[in-house]
């Protein structure tokens, strides 16, 4: 049961890591983001749990471990279904995941904290952005004056010669544009960029990406899923801007133009917060915007959910089986019979010694 459950959990994890990036591009962006992020975290947790249980079956038979936890070596050896080679391999893999992943994860978190602390938080004010956005023709426009004012109130202009635009999540909760980017875009394109970045803030994309990246730090096989999660948040922001503007083609052209302007290096903007406009996903995002609006595909999403359920249930079975294994190997504490005057023999109290 333990070996079968572990194999099912790890196989489901590998299949999820392989098909998630492909299927994630074929479902709605918000669905893909949720499944990829939550799935990465669940898959990483399941992998570490399964490896931990398998490793414990080998570690439990070591002399120094038995000196700490007094279970029966003979019982554990006879009932242990995990071969020694698998237990040793699981211990090595788990140690590598925890040490290497922990190191990378701590560095990533420290870098994120440093970026948030170093970011300017003051509002620039809408007057400084006068003429930056197209005028609203009526109070009923999707991007009305009130909405434009809200966009500009979150925007911060950076003095940087390299075109770029990005956002930082709460507690900063600001959109940053370099003056080089602003000067190279027309008012309609600036509005699209601001709407795109506001979607990242509204739906907490920065923290969702971080969660997927941390999961991949501990279980490297999930890196494609983390990359796909980042791409899904970009598509989500693109679709948000397209709904607000009401013109998918205009948004596609703006994304393409920003992608051409966006540099890969030679910017004063930290690499950790640069926008995804300059990555290889831009052509795919443009094609998605030029196509009709995506529809829900519950079948494809269901495949990913089924894989995650398989991994979760299987890892839970492994954990329960491992718990039973060590409980059976733990000798029962001796009992003392307490004689009660006037009681029959079968009514005597048995007290377990601790």
TrEMBL record:
Cofactor note: Binds 1 zinc ion per subunit.
Lineage: superkingdom: Bacteria
GO biological process: proteolysis
GO molecular function: metal ion binding; metalloendopeptidase activity
Chain ranges of the Peptidase M48 domain: 155-221
Chain segments annotated as transmembrane: 34-65, 86-106
This protein's UniProt keywords: Hydrolase, Membrane, Metal-binding, Metalloprotease, Protease, Transmembrane, Transmembrane helix, Zinc
Cofactor section: Zn(2+)
InterPro entries in alphabetical order: Beta-lactam_resp_regulator, Peptidase_M48
The family this protein is said to belong to: Belongs to the peptidase M48 family.
Protein name: M56 family metallopeptidase
Biological source species: Microlunatus elymi
């Amino acid at each position: 049961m333990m070996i079968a459950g572990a194999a099912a959990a790890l196989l489901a994890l590998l299949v999820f890591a392989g098909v998630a990036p492909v299927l994630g591009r074929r479902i709605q962006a918000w669905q893909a983001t949720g499944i990829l992020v939550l799935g990465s975290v669940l898959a990483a947790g399941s992998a570490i749990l399964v490896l931990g249980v398998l490793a414990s079956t080998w570690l439990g038979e070591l002399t120094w471990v038995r000196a700490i936890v007094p279970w029966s070596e003979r019982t554990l050896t006879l009932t242990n279904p995990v071969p020694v080679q698998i237990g040793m391999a699981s211990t090595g893999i788990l140690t590598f995941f925890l040490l290497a992943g922990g190191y990378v994860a701590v560095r990533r978190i420290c870098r994120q904290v440093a970026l948030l602390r170093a970011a300017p938080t003051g509002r620039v004010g809408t007057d400084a952005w006068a003429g930056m956005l197209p005028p609203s023709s009526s109070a009923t426009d999707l991007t009305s004056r009130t909405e434009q004012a809200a966009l500009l109130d979150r925007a911060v202009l950076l003095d940087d010669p390299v075109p770029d635009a990005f956002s930082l999540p709460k507690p900063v909760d600001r959109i940053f544009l370099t003056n080089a980017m602003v000067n190279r875009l027309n008012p309609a394109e600036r509005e699209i960029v601001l709407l795109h970045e506001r979607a990242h803030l509204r739906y907490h994309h920065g923290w969702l990406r971080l969660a997927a990246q941390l999961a991949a730090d501990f279980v490297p096989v999930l890196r494609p899923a983390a990359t796909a999660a980042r791409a899904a948040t970009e598509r989500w922001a693109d679709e948000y801007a397209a709904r607000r503007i009401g013109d998918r083609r205009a948004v596609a052209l703006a994304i393409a133009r920003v992608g051409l302007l966006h540099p890969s290096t030679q910017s004063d903007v930290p690499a950790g917060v640069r926008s995804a406009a300059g990555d290889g996903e831009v052509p795919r995002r443009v094609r998605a915007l030029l196509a009709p609006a995506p529809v829900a595909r519950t079948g494809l999403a269901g495949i990913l959910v089924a894989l995650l359920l398989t991994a979760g249930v299987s890892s839970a079975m492994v954990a329960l089986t491992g718990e039973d294994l060590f409980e059976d190997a733990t000798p029962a504490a001796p009992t003392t019979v307490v004689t009660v005057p006037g009681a029959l023999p079968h009514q005597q109290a048995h007290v377990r010694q601790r």
